Amino acid sequence: MEDCKHVLLGVTGSVAAIKVPELVKTLSELSSIKIQVKVVSTERGLHFFDAAKLPAACHTDAEEWEWKEKGDPVLHIELRKWADLLVIAPLDANTMAKMATGLCDNLLTCVVRAWDPVKPLLYCPAMNTLMWEHSITSKHTAALADLGYIQVHPAIKLLACGDHGIGAMATVDNIVQNVVEHLKHVQ
Ligand SMILES: Cc1cc2nc3c(=O)[nH]c(=O)nc-3n(C[C@H](O)[C@H](O)[C@H](O)COP(=O)(O)O)c2cc1C
What we know:
Elements: E1 4-11, H1 20-28, E2 34-41, E3 57-59, H2 61-64, H3 75-82, E4 85-91, H4 93-101, H5 107-113, E5 121-125, H6 129-132, H7 135-146, E6 150-151, E7 155-158, E8 164-168, H8 172-183
Helix pairs in contact: 1-8, 3-5, 4-7
The chain binds flavin mononucleotide.
């Protein structure tokens, strides 16, 4: 049977989350490698795309809290075990700060907190230039590097808010290339 890799796509509350449908479609339809995608979105992330129209399952905090009694699966642990690779695109400033300090108050950050350090975790920052250039950002990215997480660098362009500068999420093609490259090293 053809080898199929499991990619978990984490989504946070950046306007760049409008790219999520395109990202899921591109990852799912690659001819070079067979990938199954599942999405985990924060509540704010859900504002920017229609989860019901995605060609992949989209897991949410509401679903995580359907847990009722001992013996029921715990969703963040199930997803962490299922995934070969986690890519968070877009990663906003808020969830970046949580990841850098170990906070885990929703489904996505619980997956991150339980993450297997042997498996790749890629993150794609997306935020206004004023947020990106704040001195706290480099402290957080240094902490993420220390944890072994891989940054797909943000780009300089005209941002959704009308400002021009660094902070835009990397292109879908760039993100997909990085995912494919890192999946090559996954057993
Ligand atoms: C329209 C809109 C666009 C936003 N875009 C961004 C963004 O690109 N980057 C960012 O860091 N925060 C952005 N925010 C702020 C986040 O949504 C906010 O910090 C939120 O609490 C993040 O929650 P989450 O990390 O749980 O998804 C935006 C907010 C709004 C209302």
